[in-house]
Specification:
Elements: H1 7-11, E1 27-28, H2 40-49, H3 63-73, E2 80-83, H4 86-97, E3 108-111, H5 118-124, E4 129-132, E5 152-155, H6 167-179, E6 184-187, E7 197-199, E8 202-204, E9 217-222, E10 235-239, H7 241-251, H8 261-271, H9 274-297, E11 301-303, E12 309-313, H10 320-329, E13 332-333, E14 335-336, E15 346-349, H11 353-368
Parallel strand pairs: 1-13, 3-4, 5-6, 6-9
Antiparallel strand pairs: 2-10, 7-8, 9-10, 11-12, 12-15, 14-15
Amino acid sequence: MSFYWSGLTASLNPYVPGEQPKDKIFVKLNTNENPYPPSPKVIEAIIGAANEKLRLYPEPSCAVFREAAASFWKISPDQVFAGNGSDEILAFAFAAFFNSQNIDKTPILFPCITYSFYPVYAGLWNIPFSTKPLNAEFDIDPDDYLTESGGVIFPNPNAPTGRALTIETIKKIARHQEKNNRVLIVDEAYIAFAGNCENDSGSVGSLIPFINEHPNLLVIRTLSKDASLAGLRAGYAAGNSELIEGLCRVRDSFNSYTVDRLAQAAAAAALGEYAYYSEVNSKIINTRNRVESELGKLGFRVVPSRANFIFASPPKPKTAPEFLAALRDRGILVRHFNKERIADYLRVSIGTDEEMDAFLEACRTIISEL
């Protein structure tokens, strides 16, 4: 606490990112990064953009980046917003579409177990919020969001549980919130790992193809996970042009040059590399499925995942924090969240097959010593 801090600064509970180690080499399975490199064409685009034009400000509307996203999804460029990673876009979206307490006391809604940046953004912008519990299987209950609200936001798949709602279920929530003139924000950081899959109630996939049906639907994507660009910071949102304009108004009241020249070039190139990334991310899905099965055989309670991570509770008598420490001692980092209902679980990012084999072997060793 500092005498010089504002009241807002003193009241904030900032987001705590996953550990980025510097002291030794780890098998790093704690921050959901893609274990495979970006497409070579993305590297070429970055090298090509690293020229004398770096003395100039980047193009503020991110036209090439936005046009690439629009072309990929077959929507209009004015339905795309480009940002410096999805976290920045999420922060802009909270300010653009959710009312602060001194205007409207109706709380926004999001799950009680979800991306832990949401309550941070709500605190930053003084937005009242209410959390809704996940069911016994760690699924979002869609009925909880068919009610009056100040707006709704959730990831699909959810984090850190990896569970996903179907397209039709989310469209139902969007229709309900539209009746109340409220925005539904779907954070699709992990949707590329859900696969083109079906479950008992319908398809799981991106909502971007449906933004023209739902003027209150904003879909936010990052290139950190499925395009292997966590170190670059690039993301985009898709929605009704009025929603995109709202994001632009907030951005341009903060910083009109948020996406630099290198990031714009890399993002545009990545969006043109569907075949490369489809192969990479299919490998991750296959590895995830294999590791889920192996963990089940070792006695872990595994939550079936649609993301590039696994959420699992280690076998007793070791607690999740104890297992976390034992893995770290063996050079493997995973993530633990000390929160109600999930304090006995670990989130394990999917690495290469070799990294996951090292993780599984460490798990076997730890369990054999119980």
